[in-house]
Design brief:
Structural class: alpha+beta
Number of helices: 6
Number of strands: 27
Largest sheet: 5 strands, antiparallel
Radius of gyration: 20 Å
Strand order of the largest sheet: 1-24-23-22-21
Helix content: 10-25%
Length: 424
Amino acid sequence: MNRFIFTLTFLLIIHVVPAQEQQIDRNTFNLHFQQGYTDYAQQDYQGFLDHMLAAYEINPASYNVIYNISCGYSLTGQHDKAINTLNKIAEEKGIYFETGNDSDFDAIRELEGYKDFKAKADKMNIPINTSELFFASQQIDFSTEGMAYDPTMDRFFFGSMRNGTIMTVDVEGNLLQFTEIRHDDKLLPVLGLEVDSKRNLLWAVGRLNSQEHGRMSGAFGFDLQTGEQKHAFVLPKDSEHTGFNDLTVSNNGDIYLTGGPLYIVKEGTSNPVPWPHGEVTGNANGICFSDDESTLFVADYVLGIFAIDMASGKVQLIKAPENLPTVAIDGLYFYNGSLVGVQNGIPPWRALQFYLSDDYSQIMDHRIIERNNTKLLTAMTGAIVEDDFFMIGFGAGPTSRPQFISGWGTVNLGPTIILKALLK
């Protein structure tokens, strides 16, 4: 199985339930996916396939599950079904999965049907590299996520999904530990980050979801100079919300949080509450404002990018050209009337710039900033500094877990990499 596709689906499983089908049993979906993970690790490939098919019946909009189903068909000798599954998603959605480095497809590589698909996929996924290497750390077990730029000290923040640590790296490549997310004496994995220079705060999403330690998620504010925690806006323990993923802060101090439905923490309050104008999406991930804050953009991991008119609360799905997938976007950023997105749920990952109409209702054109970069195996999020886009993720890691690293198998093992590309 493609290491990234499996990992991403497992970690972001709460984001793949279509907004129009909120009655879907997420717990059952998660159980099938997690049991599929277990079966795959034990080389029970029929069990793996059966659970992925069951997950697909619950949520047929998950591209990651579809990919895993094609893996399962290949591994269980159902070669025609494996090829047909890959072709179906390509023809219907314009998504050509990169399968060349995935050993799960070794059994079908010499079949003419697979060769035809691979030729089309290779043509669609030709490397596009406009970036340069900005930073590389050799620690392979940090599991990088989240990125924010601090203009007051000309430095970047990034976090760890593994140990709850937040690091800084300056323009000269100096790396320092800044702080960690800790609540109720538990370390919380780090997800989204944003600098609020006006209030001298770094905001971070922390989310813990484990059988051993239970569920906990919130927005945490840290003093930009000292790293001291100043705020902890946490979901109630009895909340059915599965946890936040990303955030953005308005000029007046309101915090908008994604991760399933859209939530808000109003300035002067301390409780995350649902967006007051009705549910926007059940799959909210990347989030950003237009420069004048008239529009809030939300990347729905399954449906595409939504634009929310802040004056009226009206929500519309931004129209995209046919065969331009706007799904599976993690980080989302606004730049001179365009949107910049890290699309990491479709292999190979890519960074895209979407040029919008004046009313933000449709994508008029787009360009691929980065795709198939050999240095950066998977990009997670990014940050814009003037006219440059910085992308962070992890490079290629070991194929098996070193003994000095506990747990997680090879999930997200690899050095932290930051690339820098010019926006247009």
